[in-house]
Amino acid sequence: MALSETIIELVVDKVLIGGIVLVAGYWLNKRFEVFKNETNEKYHQRQLIAELEQQQQQQISELENQITMARHNAELEFIERQISEFYWPIYLRLEKDNVMWKRIKSLSNEQNVLPEAASIAIEKEFILKNHQEIVEIIESKIHLAENANNGKDLINELLKYIKHVAVYKTIRSVKELERFNPVDMNEPFPEKLFPLIESNFRSLQHKYEYLRNVKFGDLNKESY
The domain containing residue 123 runs over which residues? Predict the structure, then answer.
């Protein structure tokens, strides 16, 4: 083989090798670009997923806070109704009754009772009216007392009270029975009623004040 042919072959080989290297380099560069794009895309996807998860968690947290606050406000409103519509009106009337019945001649053996005419007037115009108002509150608002810790005992005492008042009104409306009192008909005033009403009233007052002043972060703590 002539020297010129050998040189030509070497040149051709180098050109071919150079071409192969260029093609391989181009292919590798393209693959790297694809890999880099895929990597960036996956990174952005992971970043987007993380951001979405963070937003979702934030929304859940905000929703939980809203639910907690709504529950808090609902409980506060219900306690306010328990106090203003049930316990306080009954407590106040029972207190007035406690003061007045001892002055009624037909009900009390104490020395400072009122004259008979005054006793009869106060009994009919005040005591019986006071009792009837309490009965009406019980009958229309009894649901406000159903969740009390002593609910069973309280309901029993309230029912006894309603029967006591019914008998009391009856014997005062029938002339032949006027000399009797409910206790003579086996329907005495329920002695546990006032202590139960007072206890629940004070307890709800305490709970109401606590809930009004509690910090948001302490709402889920059972400290009252």
Answer: 81-218
